[in-house]
Design brief:
single chain, six-stranded antiparallel sheet, 22 helices, about 60% helix, about 15% strand, CdaR_GGDEF, GAF-like_dom_sf, Diguanylate phosphodiesterase, PucR_C-HTH_dom
């Protein structure tokens, strides 16, 4: 017997991992050689043992491959970076370890109540890759619902499953026949299904089912790990955001506390609105504008355009209604109020967005500004009362202790021995409502104190004592400014200059007579001094209640015909009379002054005689005519 006819040949076949069909070779050779039956039986037994060994080695190789695949999957999970990559690797390994044509995975959708295609490997059908399986429908829907593995060698013909048109169409388009599906489980909960499928009929062995279950378990772990990582990452992001918010809030609170302390210190040390605006902009940045109740600027820090008056009114009203600062475009407004009284507004143009704490800083600044404005008003009112009482003592009471008056004046910054003018403002300025009267007196107090003078209300008049020597200029300035403030004509009479406390009472009486004379002359809304009115002012300062009516009657009776003649004819009789009396009755000098011929002057005076009567040049009548001409000129002063 040759070597080739011995059992050793089967060992050689096992050693080179020969195919199963090659193990028939020694038996065929033995039969051809005509070996005895017992020898052929021995070889038959050796072949059987060799095939069993070969099958065992094959299973072990397969198991080794499966374990290697599971090990690689575990390695992927250990270094998990992207869930999709891990799931694709698991599906790919499932396909190759089971030798399947297609492998895929579906995940359960709790909101929609179905399971949807998540990952595929080996699939060629787009329709199949978009499948959604209702719970209990098809093989996958049944596995997802029950949590148990299912296998079929021929799905299209298997009536154990609930077939639907959509599922069958997708499976048919992919060409699948044999399908194995196992659940993805987390504890007792099924979260999806892992599949292996063939495009031809194939029974899946129990070892293959166990292998797919192992891969499914790893896939479930990967999904759960990814979920935990995502939740952890989200929690870390939330913690980071919360930490950032807390830090920002803490910073805002610290800024608010610092701003509060600084503004409190400003109030305690007597700071002003300018200091508050500077403090706010140092804390918040940007530019800030402080306005009073009339929209006038109190202070400004930084470059900021003053808003339109209508915008200010609307924004301040909204801020008062809401009780906090409001935003209009790029600007923030905070109303400055005291009770129901509007005192003004703070307008902020910030560099960036304002946090809530920053808005509180602006609102606190508005409150501090209101306190400062109220304090300033209280101080001004108190000082005004003191100043008013001093001026009242100077002009209305008999002087007893002039040294005491000088001392009181020095404490107020007033030098009674310097030249002063007295200005009397008429009832036309204070005959309005109480609030308007108070506004006039407040203005007069401020006007006088800023110039080192005094102001007081006196017998329906407002009296001002102002440093200087130009009584007429002071009267006109007071009349002009008060007319603008009250919106009505205001008349002001002045006298002076006067030096020393003893002369002030007489100066005020002269200013008061000048005021009366201006009214009699019909010059309401103007300002003038007694010196500018001359002796007419002294005369008219004593007229009775008839005032302007008496003057008008006197003018009409004395030179009325001449005035009317000039008005009708456009002549110059009044001017000729003034020139004639002004040069002492000289016709030649009057003609020279008027730049006309002497005959012209003679003819004009003859016309005057016709209008006034032949006795108009007699001494007593001539005096009345001259006085009437003076009054006429003062009633309508040039310029």
């Amino acid at each position: 017997m040759s070597v080739m006819s011995s059992p050793v040949e089967f060992l050689e076949l096992l050693a080179r991992e020969a195919a199963a069909v090659e193990f028939e070779g020694p038996l065929v050779a033995a039969r051809s050689a005509g070996l005895p039956a017992d020898r052929i039986a021995e070889l038959e037994q050796a072949k059987t043992v060799a095939l069993r060994v070969r099958a065992l080695l094959e299973r072990r190789r397969r198991r080794e491959s499966e374990l290697s695949g599971l090990y690689d999957t575990v390695s992927d999970l250990a270094g998990l970076r992207d869930l999709d990559d891990v799931l694709r690797a698991i599906v790919h390994r499932a396909r190759h370890l089971l030798g399947a044509d297609v492998a895929y995975m579906t995940l359960n959708d709790e909101e929609r109540g179905d399971t949807y295609m998540r990952v595929t490997d080996g699939s060629v059908s787009a329709r199949f890759q978009r499948l959604r399986l209702p719970m209990g429908a098809g093989l996958g829907g049944l596995v997802a619902q029950s949590g148990a593995p299912y296998v079929t060698a021929n799905y299209p013909e298997d009536d154990r499953f609930h077939h639907t048109r959509e599922i069958d169409a997708g499976v048919g388009e992919e060409g699948l026949v044999a399908i194995l599906g196992v659940p993805l489980r987390l504890g007792s909960t099924s979260i999806g299904v892992l599949y292996a499928a063939n495009r031809s009929a194939r029974p899946f062995a129990r070892e293959e089912v166990a292998l797919l279950l192992s891969l499914a378990a790893h896939a479930a772990v990967a999904i759960d790990t990814a979920r935990l990582l995502a939740e952890t990452r989200a929690a870390l992001e939330e913690l980071s955001a919360a930490n950032t918010t807390i830090r920002a809030h803490s910073s805002s609170v610290e800024r608010a506390a610092a701003a509060h302390d600084r503004m409190t210190a400003l109030v305690l040390r007597g700071g002003g609105v300018e200091d508050v605006t500077a403090a706010v902009t140092e804390v918040l940045g940007g530019a800030l504008l402080a306005l009073d109740a009339e929209g006038r600027r109190l202070a400004r820090v930084g470059e900021i355009d003053e808003p339109d008056r209508v915008d200010i009114v609307e924004a301040v009203a909204a801020s008062r209604t809401e009780g906090r600062s409001v935003r209009r475009g790029a600007l923030w407004y905070a109303a400055v109020v005291a009770g129901a009284e509007n005192l003004g507004a703070l307008v902020l143009h910030p560099e960036g967005e304002l946090a809530d704490a920053d808005q509180r800083i602006l609102e606190r600044a508005a409150l501090v500004t209101a306190l400062l404005l109220l304090f300033r008003r209280t101080v001004a009112e108190a000082e005004g009362r003191v100043r008013g009482e001093l001026l009242d003592d100077l002009i209305a009471r008999p002087l007893r202790d002039t040294d005491a008056l000088r001392s009181r004046a020095r404490r107020l910054g007033v030098d009674l021995d310097a030249p002063h003018v007295l200005v009397a403002v008429g009832e036309d300025a204070i005959a309005a409502t109480g609030s308007a009267r108070q506004r006039v007196l407040s203005w007069a107090t401020t006007y006088a104190s800023t110039r080192g003078g005094l102001a007081a209300a006196r017998d329906g008049r407002v009296a001002l004592m102002l440093p200087g020597q130009d009584a007429g200029g002071s009267a006109r300035a007071v009349a002009r400014d008060l007319s603008r403030i009250t919106g009505r004509p205001v008349t002001a009479g002045a006298s002076g200059p006067s030096i020393g406390p003893a002369s002030l009472a007489a100066a005020f009486r002269e200013a008061d007579r000048c005021l009366t004379a201006l009214g009699a002359l019909g010059r309401a809304g103007q300002g003038a001094s007694t010196a500018e009115l001359g002796f007419v002012g002294l005369l008219l300062g004593t007229v009775g209640d008839g005032g302007d009516a008496d003057v008008s009657r006197f003018l009409a009776a004395t030179v009325g015909p001449v005035i009317d003649y000039d008005a009708r004819r456009g002549t110059a009789l009044v001017r000729t009379l003034e020139a004639y009396f002004g040069v002492g009755g000289s016709l030649a000098r009057a003609a020279e002054q008027l730049h006309v011929h002497v005959n012209t002057v003679t003819q004009r005076l003859e016309r005057v005689g016709q209008l006034l009567g032949a006795d108009w040049q007699k001494p007593e009548r001539a005096l009345e005519v001259q006085l009437a001409l003076r009054l006429h000129r003062l009633r309508a002063p040039a310029g």
